[in-house]
Amino acid sequence: MNDSSWGAPPQAGYWGPSDQGPVQGAGPAGPAYDAHYAQQTRPMPIVPDVPEHGGDQDDDQGTARLSGPLFRDEPFHDQPVRDEPYRDPSPSAQPYAAVPQNPEPMPDAPQPAQSQPSQKKSAGRDLGAAIGVGVGLGVVIIASLFVVKAVFVGVIAVAVVVGLWELTSRLQERKGIKAPLVPLAIGGAAMVVAGYARGAEGAWVAMALTALAVLVWRMTEPPEGYLKDVTAGLFAAFYVPFLATFVAMMLAADDGAWRVLVFLILTVVSDTGAYAVGWRFGKKKLAPRISPGKTREGLVGAVAFAMAAGALCVQFLIDDGTWWQGLLLGLVVAISATLGDLGESMIKRDLGIKDMGTLLPGHGGIMDRLDSLLPTAPVVWLLLVIFVGSG
């Protein structure tokens, strides 16, 4: 109990007015002394023992804890405080502070466990919309891939142009970087067509001409920010259309449709394996600063799923391919797809956005679906050329 709430403390050894004079060691005695302290002190009232929680409900704590104004660091609400005259309470007034209706629980009292509703693990996105959009894209890709190859080249070019638009739009909105979209879009579409028609040599020439067009196009605007704008433009030209050109180069082979199909299957299976295993068993973060949702268990799932799918696909869909080549291909695809996903996550984190766009419900934008495909395309193209030739 804090004595300061009861006014100035009496001198040591003093217990009220006395005609005997002060006790040895106390302050001066006498009528003036007694009159002075008679106004400041009075006998403590007798307070009944009232358990804070009432009754015997706290028997598990041994004995009920006393409560009331004597055990608080605050004065009576109806008692005088220092420098105020004493006033007798009315007969109807309560002589003691009222016990609160909802007293604060004792520190050592065990709190009843509150039942929490079971929380189910959320997938984090609209799976219905994602599956529907994925099936629709798959139908378009398969139909164009096995009917007329040129139509699939057009599908790649459209995806590249939309991806460039999403990327340059986000750069301008979030960073104020104005990468020239017109030369990028024209040069990107030309790059895909050149890769399909002329192979790697045509792709490199188209890439060089696109870079030159970006440099010249930006000269029509004020020089402020020129360096960052053209740098972003060159990055966009390499990141989206140039890497996508390797898909067109795969398609140019005699069994090109099957090579592209294997490439798509392995990338999608890798992403699905990582998502399913990571969502169910993921605990250890893979790269928490870049993508907190990715786990090491998810990477293991991606590798296992991709290697199994690779062994089957290369054995049965690729001419002169063997299962062990598919195992190696699946392993490399899982790694490259994961790195590509982390790479775009790094870009989006720097830009402060969750998705590159909203064109595909449940997926985000086109770039959110190309993130794993783009860096995987040159890897699959190169390994298939090494394993079974250019076709």
Word description of this protein:
With 391 residues, this protein is mainly α. Among the domains are: 124 residues, no CATH class; 138 residues, no CATH class. 56% of the residues lie in helices and 3% in strands. The protein is built from 10 helices and 4 strands; from the N terminus they run αββαααααββαααα. It has a two-stranded antiparallel ribbon. Strands 3-4 form a two-stranded antiparallel sheet. Helix 4 packs across helix 5, helix 6 runs antiparallel to helix 7 and helix 6 crosses helix 10. The longest helix is centred in the middle third of the chain and has 38 residues. The chain is globular, with a radius of gyration of 40 Å. The N terminus is likely disordered.
List the helices and strands and how they pair.
Layout: H1 31-38, E1 50-51, E2 66-67, H2 127-147, H3 149-175, H4 181-218, H5 226-251, H6 256-281, E3 285-287, E4 291-295, H7 296-317, H8 323-351, H9 366-370, H10 373-388
Antiparallel strand pairs: 1-2, 3-4
Helix pairs in contact: 2-3, 3-4, 3-5, 4-5, 5-6, 5-10, 6-7, 6-8, 6-10, 7-8, 8-10
What is this structure, in a nutshell?
This protein has 391 residues and is mainly α.
What are the defining features of this structure?
4 strands; mainly alpha; disordered N terminus; globular; two-stranded antiparallel ribbon
Order of adjacent strands in the largest pleated sheet: 1-2
Strand proportion, as a percent range, falls in under 5%
Low-pLDDT ranges: 1-29, 31-41, 50-86, 92-99, 107-120
Number of strands: 4
Q: What are the secondary-structure elements, in order, as H or E?
A: HEEHHHHHEEHHHH
Helicity range: 55-70%
Main sheet makeup: 2 strands, antiparallel
Please tally the helical runs, counting DSSP H or I stretches of 4 or more residues.
Answer: 10
Q: Oligomer, anyone?
A: single chain
Termini separation: 92 Å
Instruction: Indicate the overall shape.
Output: globular
- Please state the structural category: mainly alpha
